[in-house]
Amino acid sequence: MDLRSLRFLVLWPHKDKMEDCILDADFLPSTRHFAAFDNENNVLACCTLMPESRIVEGQVYSMRLRAMASHPDVRGSGMARELLSFALGHFLGEKFWCDARLIAVPFYERCGWRVRSEAYEIPIIGTHFLMTS
Ligand SMILES: CC(C)(COP(=O)(O)OP(=O)(O)OC[C@H]1O[C@@H](n2cnc3c(N)ncnc32)[C@H](O)[C@@H]1OP(=O)(O)O)[C@@H](O)C(=O)NCCC(=O)NCCS
Hints:
- The model has no long low-confidence stretch (mean pLDDT 97).
- A hairpin with a 5-residue loop joins strand 1 and strand 2 (43-56).
- By secondary structure, the protein is α+β, with helices and mostly antiparallel strands.
- It has a single domain (3-132), classed as Aminopeptidase, CATH 3.40.630.30.
- Strands 1, 2, 3, 4, 5, 6 and 7 form a seven-stranded mixed sheet that branches.
- The protein is globular.
- The chain has three helices and seven strands.
- Helices cover 19% and strands 38% of the residues.
- It binds coenzyme A (COA).
């Protein structure tokens, strides 16, 4: 399982094929992808960080988190949280934000993030909240 396959499986199963599971910013030099692998190089958890600023209550959050996912087989193991912590550790001094799916809000809260908006809808995907680190 590679990064696109995991994205297809758990984030965007409505797309036609895994080749469609890429973001415009995926190949920018400033974008960073992080993944946790098993011994056979299958991706078990992944996330992507990119520079994109968002101002929340006067504070600049300069990095955007996208495509946070873990394989169903490892859910609840703490691997996703560890990967996120590892990824954020590469950007010391930065602040982070994301569009958090309703279903993922408790995960981000367990990682110390905070809900910073009312609920809003993103077509096809559903209800989201702005969250910050
Ligand atoms: C969101 C997601 C990455 C969380 O992965 P995970 O494997 O459950 O995360 P972890 O095992 O690292 O969990 C860390 C903590 O969050 C908690 N947690 C995770 N999801 C939770 C939920 N839905 N409700 C309550 N607690 C939750 C875990 O129990 C764990 O708690 P602990 O501190 O008591 O150990 C995963 O559920 C996923 O891939 N979901 C589908 C894709 C998705 O929605 N991604 C987010 C896009 S914004």
